[in-house]
Amino acid sequence: MKRPNLLRRATERFAADPASVKNAVLVMIVITVGIVFVGGVIVWMFDRQDFPDLGSALWYTLQTVTTVGYGDHVPTTEIGRVVGASVMIVGVALIAIVTASITSVFVEAAQRRQRAGRDAQDRDSIEALHQRLDDVLARLTAIEATLTARDPGPDPTTPPEYRPASRDDD
């Protein structure tokens, strides 16, 4: 039985829930590592004067993507500068996406707390309303019982035309 490779599983996970913070961070990490590696290889291949070995080219792209930019390795060729600019853009995008993802987690947590507070308040209000309605119902029942005990009167289900005439001489 074959196991799906890591890239396929990551792609399927991202397709299933692209808005999750975990997926966004994983995608950005994969893109960043890819840009560092590909950019380092391209700079090393086309700018051997400034980056004589792959390690120094990878170091340059890594410090560029993290926006540190020590300046100890700087490309002088056009291709090196284009790669550097691309890596800088990815680095800034990474920081922006990570910041937005963390912010969205905090906002969602605050909204969840507010909803829970509103729900509890609504439950309390409904419970108080039910209690008041029960009190009103009990009072009405007591009033009806008092009135019935004083004068049972005609049967309320009897139509008015069949009820006896009221006596005014009492």
- Please estimate the helix content: over 70%
Low-pLDDT regions = none
Please tell me how large the radius of gyration is: 39 Å
Taken as a percent bin, the fraction of beta residues is under 5%
Oligomer: single chain
Reading the helices and strands in chain order gives HHHH
| Distance linking N and C termini | 101 Å
At CATH's second level, what is the architecture of the domain at 6-112?
Answer: Orthogonal Bundle
Rough outline: rod-shaped
| Strand runs, count | 0
Mean pLDDT, all residues: 81
Class based on secondary structure composition and strand pairing: mainly alpha
Q: List the total number of helices.
A: 4
CATH class category of the domain at 6-112: Mainly Alpha
Here the CATH topology of the domain at 6-112 equals Helix Hairpins
Largest sheet data: none
How would you portray this structure in words?
By secondary structure, the protein is mainly α. The protein has a domain at 6-112: Helix Hairpins. It has four helices and no strands. It is rod-shaped and about 120 Å long. The model has no long low-confidence stretch (mean pLDDT 81).
In short:
Helices cover 72% and strands 0% of the residues.
List the helices and strands and how they pair.
Elements (H helix, E strand, L loop, with lengths): L5 H11 L4 H26 L7 H12 L12 H73 L20
Which descriptors apply to this entry?
Helix Hairpins
